[in-house]
Design a protein that fits this description.
It is built from 23 helices and 32 strands. The protein is an alpha+beta fold. The N and C termini lie far apart (66 Å).
């Protein structure tokens, strides 16, 4: 195990004697006898496991080497035996078995550091064959980060320089640029990693470009292995996407930015401007060979700046702190959190608990579920188009976890004799009959989160507050992930009956509350899964707050907590689910937007900006002005009067061979043109372009490169049509659809005298009574 001590020293901890094992369900005597004779099998232990609602006989098969487990797993599966717990990574198996948390005090003897780059190497003591350690309060150590960047020839890939920057004890320092013979550069960089001994290695797109290029060139010049790990091991590729260095974190700043921020453009220059307000040094990567010959010093400064920007971007997106927080609550190494999905976080909590049940609960293989049908999701209440006033937004606190606890939903309580019946007809044992594993875990997590939030309020410094805030947020992520994996088709404990029952109970809960509120005469405007929008019968802030609080209190029962979150005044929607915008006036003032293009990263900026301006006018009650804004923006776009940078479209590009017709894709066209210009491209990267001719098949696009002048001519009609399509979702409620916006007029508008006259005449003909009241928006809908 590798880590960082509380006083900032790197440490390697050695433990020997732990062996891999797996379980086989209901083995025959012949199979057991055969395994006992196998020289690679160390031990066979006959045990009992709880699996699929009953206690089964099983065998625990212990092997000599972890890499042989897949072979035995496959062999026994071919013989039609059910194999359990045979796909758990060996290091995770060790951590789970001894319930090792993220922060521990280790007992052992310090040994010679030969073969390691850490400050300390410890041989861990054993007590009855088990590692000797004790859990301590969690802490986030100060990590030493090394960021690097490679500049290499466009012609033959040979490396010109590797530059790096290091952050240690809160300060960033730039290293000496590595130049000279290629072999010397690569070997020197390996020595830098060994001597600096960073906890984290980063850079911008190092997973997809810099690390592979160094490995490629190392082989070309005859270097046998790059000793970058803390045990002097080589970088290891993971799923052709990530790299692992033993004892270090590889945290690609590009990937962290992509996941955390989802920026519209992912180039280093754009992200640096976005997060740091800085830009790269201006060197044309297409002419790097010429630049190196004519202005080597400028290229070195360019490379050093890129390395430093990468380091600062990684810190700005805060991925390391968030990963450490998740590691603390999931009891996993930070590397597992950084490079794994939600299922591994859940595994860490669930498998430990399953192993400690009596009898232990069997752990199925990942992907062993045969569930393929989708689970019906949460209830969505129909929303009518219009403007609504004094709207209370109420939200269930951790609805799915709360339902799992209150209804005792678990794969260990799924039983035909259960007292609890879900709306889908599935039965679960009550807590009196047997408390489920999932409810136990979630109850503990909820309790832990409440305790951490209490400590957060008592924090004596901003740093302490931030630390506890990160932990409580991590627990919330973990709790919500439980439903996510159980509703999936891939998780090892997936059961459609469980996921379906959870959402069915949720729908029943929401529908019941809506029915009761409507029975009392209250207008429920909208509902989505675990939230309810109710119109207050009052038009003052004080009375509406009291109304919202009363509803929240009344419907918080049976283990569920309905929280009164916001007052929205007003709320607008064009009548589609998950699409609304409103002005929040309590408890804080903000604009709340869901579903519209202002929230989408694949829209172009002009769409977002114009739509936001239209919304602002609508929320101010100026619907005529909203339509004018939309009409003028569409007209200006059609006339080519908008800044080109507002038209940039960005999307992620998959590997070309994953598209049925790659060359028809704008993403592929852009990626190929970028590569032809000498820019890096890695599958999964977001590329940016401007459409220059939408009439062609496929449409013609040109790459947009942040910081470089765009020489093409945008297809202004294409952009005007896209803009009209977007803003029409708001303006069509007032009579202006996409076609009207493009034409710049409609036969009758809501605001023309002729329209008012015609509508008035029609009403007079059809209705026996006249009204003198002023017409409102609702009259037109």
């Amino acid at each position: 195990m590798y880590g960082k001590t509380i006083d900032g020293r790197s440490i390697a901890i050695r433990f020997t004697g732990f062996l891999p094992y797996f379980h086989v369900l209901e083995p025959t005597r012949d199979v057991i006898d055969s395994l006992k004779k196998d020289p690679n099998v160390v031990n066979i232990e006959e045990i009992e496991l709880f699996h699929k609602g009953k206690v089964n006989k099983a065998a625990k098969v212990t092997l000599k080497f972890p890499w042989t487990v897949p072979e035995y797993r496959s062999r026994l599966k071919r013989m039609n035996f059910e194999v359990l717990a045979a796909d758990i990574p060996f290091h995770n198996r060790f951590i789970y078995d001894f319930d090792i948390p993220s922060c521990i005090r280790v007992f052992g003897k310090e040994r010679d550091k030969t073969g390691y780059t850490t400050d300390i190497v410890i041989d861990m003591d054993k007590v009855n064959g088990k590692p000797r350690f004790e859990e301590i309060p969690s802490f986030n150590p100060k990590l030493k980060i090394l960021a690097f960047d490679v500049e290499n020839s466009i012609k033959d890939n040979h490396i010109y320089t590797i530059c790096y920057a290091v952050k240690e004890n809160g300060k960033i320092r730039q290293g000496r640029p590595l130049i000279g013979e290629e072999r010397e550069i690569i070997e020197s960089f390996s020595k830098v990693i060994q001597s600096e001994d960073p906890d984290v290695v980063t850079g911008y797109n190092i997973d997809g470009y810099d690390i592979p290029i160094i490995i490629e060139r190392a082989k070309a010049v005859g270097i046998q292995g790059l000793q970058w790990g803390r045990d002097l091991s080589e970088p290891k590729p993971i799923m052709n996407r990530f790299w692992r260095l033993t004892g270090r974190l590889v945290a690609d700043a590009w990937w962290a930015t992509k996941i955390q921020l989802k920026p519209k453009q992912e180039t280093l220059n754009h992200v640096a401007k976005l997060l740091l307000g800085e830009e790269k040094i201006d060197v044309d990567p297409r002419k790097i060979d010429e630049e190196w010959i004519s202005n080597k010093d400028k290229v070195l400064k360019y490379c050093l700046k890129d390395a430093e920007l990468s380091l600062r971007i990684l810190e700005a997106v805060d991925i390391l702190r968030k990963s450490m927080d998740l590691a603390t609550v999931s009891r996993l190494p930070v590397d597992d959190v950084l490079n794994s999905g939600a299922s591994q976080l859940i595994d860490s909590i669930l498998i430990r608990a399953a192993d400690r049940q009596r009898p232990p609960v069997g752990v199925p293989l990942t992907g062993s579920s045969e569930e393929e049908e989708t689970i019906e999701g949460g209830y969505v209440h129909t929303i009518e188009p219009g403007i609504y006033h004094w709207v209370c937004l109420l939200d269930f606190k951790s609805m799915y976890p709360s339902l799992i606890i209150s209804k005792n939903i678990c794969f260990t309580t799924l039983n035909e004799n259960g007292d609890i019946i879900s709306p889908t007809g599935v039965r679960f044992l009550s807590k009196e009959q047997k408390e489920g594993l999932l409810p136990q875990i979630l109850t503990r997590l909820m309790k832990d989160r409440d305790e951490i939030k209490k400590r957060m309020k008592e924090a004596k410094s901003p740093e302490e507050y931030r630390y506890y805030d990160g932990l409580q947020a991590a627990i919330k992520v973990l709790m919500n992930a439980f439903y996510g994996v159980f509703a999936s088709s891939f998780y090892r404990f997936t059961d459609r009956k469980i996921g379906g029952s959870i959402t069915a109970f949720a729908r029943e809960t929401i529908k019941g509350i809506i029915a009761e509120l409507e029975k009392e005469g209250h207008k429920v405007i909208y509902s989505d899964t675990d939230s309810i929008f109710v119109q207050s019968p009052y038009q003052t802030l004080e009375e509406t707050i009291k109304f919202g609080q009363e509803i929240a209190t009344r419907f918080s029962n049976e283990g569920r907590l309905l929280e009164f979150e916001k007052i929205i005044e007003p709320l607008f929607t064009h009548g589609k689910k998950k699409r609304y915008v409103g002005r929040v006036i309590w408890p804080n003032e903000e604009i709340l937007i869901r579903g519209y293009e202002v929230r989408r990263t694949d829209s172009f900026d002009l769409q977002s900006e114009v739509l936001m301006r239209v919304f602002e006018q609508i929320l101010d009650g100026k619907t005529e002005e909203a339509v004018k804004v939309a009409r003028q923006a569409v007209a200006d776009t059609l006339a080519g009067k908008v800044p080109i940078e507002k038209l940039v479209i960005s999307r992620s590009c998959k590997p070309f061979n994953q598209y049925k017709d790659p060359d028809s894709q704008a993403t592929v066209q852009t990626a190929k043109k970028l590569m032809a210009l000498g820019y890096e491209f890695v599958p999964g990267m977001k590329v940016s372009w401007i459409v220059t001719d939408s009439r062609k098949t496929p449409q013609e696009v040109e790459p947009y490169i942040s910081g470089k002048r765009f020489s093409g001519t945008p297809d202004w009609r294409y952009y005007a049509e896209r803009l009209a399509q977007t803003v029409a979702r708001a303006t069509e409620v007032f009579g202006w659809d996409e076609r009207s916006l493009m034409m710049g007029s409609q036969q009758f508008t809501l605001f023309d005298e002729s329209f008012e006259k015609t509508r008035r005449e029609e009403r007079e003909k059809q209705q026996p009574k006249k009204t003198q009241r002023k017409l409102s928006l609702e009259d037109f809908m």
